[in-house]
Structure formats: structure tokens, C-alpha cells
Amino acid sequence: MRKILLLVCLFAVFGCKKKDDPKPPERVLLLFPEKNSECTTGVDQDATTSRVTFSWQRSDNTDSYELRVTNISSNTVQTISTQSTTASLPLLKGQPYSWLVRSRNNQVDNTISSEQWNFYNAGSRTTFAPFPAEILAPSMSERVFKDINNEVTLSWSASDLDDDIENIEVYFSEQNPPLNLEAALSDVATTLKVSVLSGTTYYWSVVTRDAEGNATNSGIYSFTVL
């Protein structure tokens, strides 16, 4: 009788145990083309196009990946879905691109994106415009606290294959787009403190200029001061 009761209890514990909820996918680590580099491994398709192979590390809880590649100059986007950790796309030679990979799990709705990396697809170009500055903080639509001096620190990173960045221009205002030139800084500057008011939304962008007169814009970012 005791054995029967024991079996019934075990069945009640283990037989009725719920399955674990499916876990969301994790973020992949990008491998190639490398960040802020010139990709020289593309396979020629014709005089203007080469096929570039992208690769990344496999991520946990992931059924498929979506590769998203954007031509920075034209804002043209190409996407491809795969279960592999590599995929290739035809790209224009001598053009700047950004790329990222989204992880998907068929059992959950949410996806997660990798970091976004920039690169140039090799071509006949001998000089390169700077990559658009990467905004680090505050991130898009972030809600932030001001410091004791009623200031918020803006931070970014800038890169140029030619390593000839001459200056950084930071535009900052309560209007969108931000037209006020807050500061013109040296090529090594990566932060700027700005005065802010609580309960206010601000817009900002970073323009990077090089010795050849090329300029790129980070795009407009916003944050709200609590």
C-alpha cells in the first residue's frame, strides 16, 4: 500500500509538472566583415558589384537569424533570413555599409539584435569618408537624470579608415532637427557636457569631418531629462 501511495505522489509531482517557458533568443557576436574596416574579400559579380559573405557566432535559444545590411550613403536595406551563421549579399563596390544580425526563436515573439558594425566594401576608392559617429550615451529615447551641475554628458565614438578626422561638430537643441551648433571639437573628442532642464526632451547629432572635406552625420538622437 505504501508503494502505491508513493507512486501516486511521484506521479502528482512529476506528471503534473509544467514545462519550462521557452527562453528568448540571445544576441549574436559579429565576426566578419570587421568593425570599421575595409572588406577586401568580396567576390566580383561585375564592374560595380561584389558578393560579400557575412559571419557571426551562433547564439543560444535561436532558431534563425536575420542579416540586415544597410548602404549608409543611399539608406538602401537588404535582408536575408537563414538558420546558418553565414550569409552573402551582393553589394556595391566602394560604398560604406552597416550590418547587424537579429536572433529569432519560433516559440517567442521578441527578437534581439546584435551590435551594429560599419565597413567599406572594397572598390576603386582610395580615400574614405568617416563612418557616421556611433552614439553611445544617452541612447535613443533614453530617460536620464541631470548631474549636480544641471548637465548631461553626451558621448560617442568616431572612426575613419584614413585616420584623418579633423573635427567633430555637435548639434543640440530642444527642436527636431537640432540646428544649433553646440560645439566644434577636435578629432579626439568623444564627450561633451550640455546644460539641461528637467522634464525636457532634447535632440542631438554628431557630424564628423575629415581632411578631404568629407562629412558624415550620426543621425538624430533624443533623450528626456527626468
UniProtKB/TrEMBL annotation:
InterPro entries: FN3_sf (IPR036116), Ig-like_fold (IPR013783). It comes from the Bacteria. SUPFAM superfamilies: Fibronectin type III. It comes from Maribacter algicola. This is Fibronectin type-III domain-containing protein.
